[in-house]
Batch of 4 targets.
Target 1
Amino acid sequence: MVVGAALGGLADGMGDAFFTSKARAIGHALFWGVNFGVFVATMVYLGTQTPKVRALEEPLAKWGPLICVVVGAILIMFDLSRHVFLDLGLAGEEAAMYNDEGGLSPVGQIGVAGTWVGLVFVASGIACFANLPNKLAKGWETLSQGSQV
């Protein structure tokens, strides 16, 4: 995700001479496939490990991390799919990212917001599954006790 954002910024700086519509289409398709594969692998892992790792949790706490990752992945894939549909000619100008004035269109705004919210959901789901908040709290407690000795 971060690499894609960085490359997108690089592409904007280099102009259309370097990044043709065909190169953009290939990049969108590759990026879509990589994200889809990573999300599916993550969801399969969480889905198979949740009954083992989070067996003693209440249902919402047990399955919440997986639900967060699924919702986040859907939100992220929405905008990536929009790019691919536009590249393939399967969506009209109403699905364009930018309006005629060069600002974000309503669809572009939804895509950007959905991507960022999706990223927060995916990261939160993975962090909760890994019990990261408790691990960080225990680490902080250990560090703060060690400095008082």
Note: Residues 2-148 form one domain.
Target 2
Amino acid sequence: MMQTQYSQISVFTTIWTILINTVLVLLILIGILIAASMLPLKNNYRILAVMSGSMQPTISTGSLVIIKPVQEYKDQDIITFKTPNSAKKNDYTTHRIVKIESKAGGKTFVTKGDANSADDTEQIVQSEVVGKELFSIELLGYILGYIKTLPGLLIIVVVPAVIIIYEEVNKIKSEAQKIVSRKRELKKAKNGKISD
């Protein structure tokens, strides 16, 4: 009976450890990807959250969009650009190119959200384009948006740190118990030899 309880506890502990390590690895990978996307490298990819439904059903609200600058943008490409006339510094729009026009200053793009009935009113010049959509992942944009808040930042930093510290404390505790156990066995063995 006792052995069955120990084996159940052991299985639970193993599953818990695997789950914690998986979450930890995912958080670390997300952190690395976000940090790498923020590096001021030329033609670096960027990770952005889509918070409107203008590109439904192609890109859902709350999706994570990976974009990268390319040499040439083509008709029907989905691009991300600085939102025209926005007061916010990092306000971006992700829409599809529906027409490319050549003007004296270079190319301009007429864009439109897939869910919108009309083209965007402002034409976009190439210098305003941040990049072309490589792919998107549904729902992960909500997580990215949350990570950018103070509680989210604390979770992405504090939770992995607490997990790592917890795991290390358990390892140290286990090793300390093994050392104490070995010392007791050695002491018993010594006492047994002395009494003989």
Note: Residues 1-39+152-177 form one domain.
Target 3
Amino acid sequence: MEVILVMVILVVISALAVPVVTGMFTGRTLDAAADTVKGELTKTRSKAIENRAPYRFAIKENTGMYRIAPDTDDYWSGGSVSSSGNADGDCQEPQVIEGSLPEKVCFGQSTGVGMNSGAGSDWKTVATFLADGTALEDVQVSISSQDGAAPILIQLKASTGSVSVASLPASSNAN
């Protein structure tokens, strides 16, 4: 009888702890996704400076997919472009970088450049960095989790290329 009583107490404590622990991980996943976007925007800026050419950071809204590539029609016209180095076979960093946010985290609406990245493409340009490290304009993009955590707003300051992150109120509908 004592063993059964101890088991019941453990089950009750576990049932109370699961929602709390799940909520902690949801927030951490969204924070990690915000750090990823911040890092990828910084990477886009660095590539523009390094290659002395404009680079775009684009997203597919309502998904977690993002793309970094030079700001030319060759990379954004909807055709297939190799994401490897140059044609000579040198081991260079890829010209096109595609990635995605963690599962159940997606981009919401963005403000700023707001243009599609090519005919027949569902990529939406969030930021275009110039060779001097500045962006074309200030932008904001939100990310949210399907698990109900408060959305996060990522802001880019065009004149400096700096990126900041802010939490939105849980009741805000960022998508």
Note: The chain has two helices and nine strands.
Target 4
Amino acid sequence: MMGHRGTLARAGLAIAFALFSTLLVPAQTGSSAEDCLVCHGPFDRLVAATADYKWPGGEVQSPHRYVPHDSTTIADCLFCHEAHPLPPSASDIAAISKPKPEYCFECHHTRTFACGTCHPVPSD
């Protein structure tokens, strides 16, 4: 059973969220990784949190990688995810957890992540 402090804390949190949510607007199609990482970041935590992601071919690897992989460039989130309004609804959250991996398969055309199995890996 929740004590008096827990009830007050929960009420305060609800009020703060209600006030904060009035400042939020629906996500725009021009959202960037920087916008997404305000709530879903930092990027390293996102990579770690999705380390057990299972790809359609059965491989397990985080889909959140730098692109190209030897850089520090974060791919635009909208390549794989739909932008969602704030706060997100339950259906928005379900859609986020089902990304479209086709962006990765533009380069990983064999739909696997074993590099160099079909051609030499580009040096650039």
Note: The helical segments are 4-21, 33-40, 43-49, 90-96.
